[in-house]
Design goal:
CATH topology: TIM Barrel
Order of helices and strands: EEEHEHEEEHEHEHEHEHHHEHH
CATH architecture: Alpha-Beta Barrel
Helix content: 25-40%
CATH class: Alpha Beta
Number of strands: 12
CATH superfamily: NADP-dependent oxidoreductase domain
Number of domains: 1
Radius of gyration: 19 Å
Low-confidence stretches: none
Strand order of the largest sheet: 3-4-5-8-9-10-11-12
Length: about 325
């Protein structure tokens, strides 16, 4: 497994990580035993970058990672580089809102440390911007956590390149997390470039298009079992059928190359820049192996050109988020 730099403090991690949303029930039922099996398989594959959040299962993902680490004895603190997030809250009616106040971020950081059972978080993200707090002030808050020794680096999820530049003027930003894949290429309109210019890692979530870039895309029946996908435009008809049809040629290309579709999708993403770090999530060890294989697949300029021919920018039908799901991410194009 190749390594890449995470952020700007000299930390290196595996070329891909594991997204911890799959350790909750977000994409389907799972449990502690199954989550531990994925974590064990990740170590066997040389994957040492974990990405989670305080809201993934309302703490469940962090707790499952923490319980796995607790079983590892004296090596527990050196096995994984762990990133987690805070800033998304839910009220009594289960409605989401955002809080970037120093008090909230500090309190949630302490809770995450306890659930994970670690003394320091390697990378602490603001999960969504709270526009009532200037990003310069939020960067100052996060920098204070570095000074206290509770975190090593900080980052932001789903922010605009201009916001990144403002935050960096206060303190170097380790990473920006954004959805980025062959089906969501908006980061190429400024974010890929700005993160590279500033020495900030671009951590790409949903790198296989929430299944559209795999051998077995979700059916509408399957999507209806998932609270996030049931109302996601790309997984509603007729757009879902159009997306599956439009991506069939990519699946055929992967077959001709002798690899799985998800393997090819990961490899393409890794070829977008040395600072790009995909963090796919999965509940399947076999799928994890397919994803990890993408780190070993080298693509020629001709391969890259052919991939772009099969899936040109803008091929996907439907927006990547619904109106409700767009609450929080910063639009910049």
């Amino acid at each position: 497994m190749d390594n890449r730099q995470l952020g700007n403090d000299g930390t290196t991690v595996s070329a891909i990580g594991v997204g911890g949303l799959s350790f909750s029930d977000f994409y389907g039922p799972t449990d502690t035993e199954k989550s531990h099996a994925i974590l064990s398989a990740a170590l066997d594959l040389g994957i040492n970058h974990l990405d989670t959040s305080n809201v993934y299962g309302m703490g469940v993902s962090e707790e499952r990672i923490g319980s796995f680490l607790a079983k590892q004895g004296t090596h527990r603190n050196s096995l994984f580089t762990i990133a987690t997030k805070a800033g998304i809250c839910r009220n009594e009616e289960s409605e989401s809102y955002f809080d970037n106040s120093p008090e909230h971020l500090a309190a949630e950081l302490d809770k995450s440390l306890r659930r994970l059972g670690v003394e320091t978080i390697d990378l602490y993200y603001v999960h969504r911007r709270d526009q009532s707090h200037p990003i310069e002030d939020v960067a100052g808050t996060l920098a204070s956590f570095i000074k206290s020794g509770k975190i090593k680096q900080f980052g932001f999820s789903e922010i605009a390149p201009t916001s990144l530049a403002r935050a960096t003027a206060v303190h170097p930003v380790g990473a920006v997390q954004s959805e980025y894949s062959l089906s969501t290429r908006s980061p190429e309109l400024g974010l890929v470039q700005k993160t590279a210019d500033l020495g900030t890692s671009l951590v790409a979530f949903c790198p296989v298009g929430r299944s559209l870039l795999t051998d077995k895309p979700h059916t509408r029946q399957r999507a209806e079992t998932m609270p996030f996908l049931v109302n996601n435009p790309r997984f509603m008809e007729p757009d879902l059928s159009r997306n599956i049809a439009a991506s069939n040629s990519f699946r055929q290309l992967a077959g001709k190359m002798g690899v799985k579709t998800s393997t090819l999708a990961i490899s393409w993403l890794l070829h977008q820049g040395d600072h790009v770090l995909p963090i796919p999530g999965t509940r399947s060890i076999e799928h994890l192996k397919e994803l990890a294989a993408g780190t070993e697949l080298k693509l020629s300029p001709a391969d890259m050109k052919e991939i772009d021919r099969q899936l040109p920018i803008g091929w996907a039908h439907g927006d990547r988020y619904s109106v409700a799901q767009w609450e929080g991410p910063e639009k910049y194009c």
